Amino acid sequence: MDWRIGFQVSLLPATPHSSCKTMARFKAKQPMRPAEKPRMRRLSNAERSAYFARREAAKVLRSVLQGDAFRRAVGSIKTLVYSPTIKNKKATFALVCQTLKHLPIIKDVLEGANILNSRWKRQEELVYIITYDILFGQEISLIGDAEKFLVQRKVSLQSALARLLVRKKVKRLEDLIDLYQTPDVSKPRYVRVNTLKLGVDSALIELGKQYVKDNLVPDLLKLPPKCDLHDHPLVVSGCVFMQGKASSMVAAALDPEPGWEVLDACAAPGNKTVHLAALMRGKGKVIACELNKERIKRLENTVRLSGAHNIEVLHGDFLSLDPKNPLYSKVCAILLDPSCSGSGTVAERLDHLLPSYATGQAVNIDERERLNKLASFQKKALAHALCFPQVERIVYSTCSIHQIENEDVVKSVLPLAASHGFQLATPFPQWYRRGLPVLEGSEHLLRTDPVEDKEGFFIALFIRKDRTTIQPLLKPERATLDSSRPLPKRKRRLNKKKGRLAVPTLFGGMFKMRLYCKPSSRIDLK
Q: What positions does the entry give for S-adenosyl-L-methionine binding (predicted)?
């Protein structure tokens, strides 16, 4: 029976008994009225996107704050945001950066409002994100328990903000933000053209006139500060990589030739690995070694995006690799970019947004202990790289400004390097900034400055002076001493393989150097 019929009947004159029965029936039917059925409002795409972006931003923010608190960062803000697990990268990145930028104010407001119970304190990163949106960002829809909880207390949050303005003796919100604000670090942006997929000139045509070629790294393009290319089709397709100038100089300093076998000792996230593959024009082999299981996934994604087919990913510890193992007998160059403090990339990593940076904390006892542990590992790794018998070139690099991770590490291995026939060489002789004068040969070391160059990197290049030839460059027709003699097929293949090793002994070192070595404008021997 329709509810309207019951309602009309209840208005008619009736006996007391019939009236009670009618009203009982009306009340029983009342919950079934269409006008009172609960209706769920369908969320718009923007609301749904904002809801999930806040959750993703909270997850990233938790990793960032925990890493900053314990000085054990899993990765930079950009690394965490632009991982494959984050769907809405642009919104998440903006939320994380803006929340960090306003975090001191947000914390003071929440403390003044005194509205958080134990439940929400366990989700404080999500609370920070939503509070930023309520006070400084966009209008919040009442979706999600956290959003409902904080929007219902919006008046308390605004009152706490007003009291904070009075306490800090400022009248405008902009003045309060400036009072808390850390200096902004702006820098030119660079993209490296992945020449495995696209030529530099073609990339310039695609990207536009505001991009110019870098004068040092041939496949690097410079663009104005604050340009965002993360969603550009060339970036999404792996035709260009967002990579800083100093970072791009590392693989270029090693200067691998097509056909070499190169070992990237600490490869993840893989930007330098795929740069090596591009410099080698996809020929030869790059062994990308990485110990961390989670970072292996990032490395594999980078390799897949680059389209490189000459990279072999090796999940293992570089220090456990046996230099005498036949598997590495053809390795002629090693790129060693080990774990470091990352102190030279505060602008790129956005470390100036972190609480420790904002409070101006000096290097404390815990940080010194961490630096000592890092330096100990770096020394072991560099010493291990020097022990590979066929290696001719080694690049050691960090994104640190600390002497203990840079010049001190190089100084510690110089006697071992000399015993294996290595000496320091000068990468990029035209570069003006060199190592600290704390060791002999510091003029061969390369530094970039975090203030003037916007990144603080360190590069040391070792070259074996007694063997300047890379064996894989030998061509089979030159390696065979007498290919005209009729030999059994199996024996001839074996003879060719041995012939490659026999050529230097037969013809002498000077012939070998003249025949196979290509002079490089980037390298000056000590």
A: 266-272, 290, 317, 337
